[in-house]
Design goal:
The chain is of the alpha/beta class and 398 residues long. The protein contains 14 helices and 19 strands.
Length: 398
């Protein structure tokens, strides 16, 4: 757990003296090896706000991999973990602006304002409101997003007539990460009941069982699974007037200062066959797998499945943005068969991918005791009831 900020801490950090103190502390190393010396120095100059200064600087440094322009942000560790990545928030902002031009958007769990920062930048969104029960987080948001209207309010008590309501229920408690829908803060089903009949966008953990949500609780909106640079970031539930039901996968990738995107939806054809391996094994992006759109993706790019129940695809080419493994040899999955095949190709460093089999890649790699020099990959999977291994050249991102 990180440092727990007070309102006095935030007020100090927002002051001119606090800004200068942050500049000074930013010049310190603040690493595990330097903290013994750094902490007393900061404490001697800035007590009782020394811990707040150190935590802010360290959080800003960690935020650089997730949030754009983090050097002026006020934030704590828990808020940073929950915050939506800027690229994902910007993509959602563009979509909201396109779907609901001129809308007023209310983020009812705004926390430190990571999502609000992107919303206020859109000229096609008429107004931005943020609210939260945590007064300290709201004070941070006032610093981070000076252009937003901010309220201290419970997400389950509607406080505006905004056209679009955005929520991100907390997925952590004092005991750690939570997984049940009723353990979220606020609970997901209560949120959906509170804002029934309005456009509601709820950000959830990427592992959300959206099929259970439909079948058991009658969710009839749209499920969007989003990945960023190969990592699945969230499952987003869209519901209300103007939202078509269905599933879609949004794949975002950063290239320098730009973000590219493509989507696959369940409105596309999923007519693909299963067959023998082609030149390449293709590992679809996690968002496509989580959204249940592997077959739709395969159809679009002329790929096919190795097995109808397994997410690996195969074909004679690899789609842009996907990761492909050029097949060298097909063999069995026993240690003896793998060791023989890999040794014949002078394999040393080995990446192991597994789907459909109960195999621990790290344990298997140690048992194989490969002594060659050539980097390779092996894809372990199941075709029907039979385990199969594909010895491949190292994976390539196209």
């Amino acid at each position: 757990m990180g440092y727990s900020f007070s309102l006095d801490d935030v007020a100090f950090l927002r002051s001119r003296h606090g800004e200068k103190a942050l500049q000074t502390v930013s010049g310190l190393e603040l690493s595990a090896s330097s903290m013994i010396a750094d902490v007393p120095e900061v404490r001697s100059r800035y007590s009782p706000h020394d811990a707040a200064l150190i935590e802010t600087v360290r959080c800003r440094r960690r935020a650089a991999a997730k949030l754009w322009a983090p050097d002026d942000l006020l934030l704590d560790d828990a808020a940073l973990q929950q915050a939506t990545a800027s690229a994902v928030a910007a993509d959602r902002t563009a979509e909201v602006a396109a779907r609901f031009p001129g809308a007023v958007v209310h983020d009812v769990t705004c926390s430190i304002g990571a999502e609000l920062r992107e919303l206020v930048r859109s000229s096609d969104i008429a107004g931005v409101i943020g609210s939260d029960l945590d007064e300290v987080r709201l004070a941070m948001a006032r610093h981070n997003v000076p252009g937003a209207t901010l309220l201290n309010a419970d997400a389950l008590t509607p406080t505006s007539t905004a056209d679009v309501v955005l929520a991100d229920p907390a997925r952590r408690s004092e005991a750690g990460r939570v997984f049940r829908l009723d353990q979220l803060t606020p609970p997901l089903l209560e949120l959906m009941t509170t804002y029934a009949g309005r456009v509601l966008i709820v950000k959830c953990a990427p592992g959300l069982d959206h099929m259970m949500l439909r079948n058991r609780f009658g969710f009839d909106g749209q499920v969007q699974i989003t990945s960023l640079d190969g990592g699945v970031r969230e499952a987003c539930l869209w519901s209300g007037p103007g939202v078509e039901p269905g599933r879609r996968a949004t794949v975002l990738r950063t290239h320098g200062g730009t973000v590219t995107r493509f989507e696959v939806t369940d409105g596309e054809s999923d007519d693909v066959d299963a067959g023998d391996a082609g030149e390449w094994i293709v590992d679809p992006d996690g968002a496509i797998v989580r959204a249940g759109l592997v077959r739709h993706y395969a159809h679009r790019f002329g790929l096919w499945q190795l097995d109808p129940q397994i997410a690996y695809l195969t074909g004679h080419s690899v789609p842009d943005g996907a990761r492909g493994f050029r097949v060298v040899e097909q063999t069995g999955v026993t240690e003896k068969a793998l060791r023989k095949a890999l040794a014949a190709h002078d394999c040393g460093p080995l990446e192991i991918l597994v789907r459909g089999l109960d195999v621990d890649p790290d344990r298997l790699r140690k048992k194989l005791k490969l002594k060659g020099s050539r980097p390779m990959s092996v894809v372990l999977t199941r075709i029907g009831r039979r385990g199969v291994a594909f010895v491949c050249e190292p994976g390539v991102r196209f």
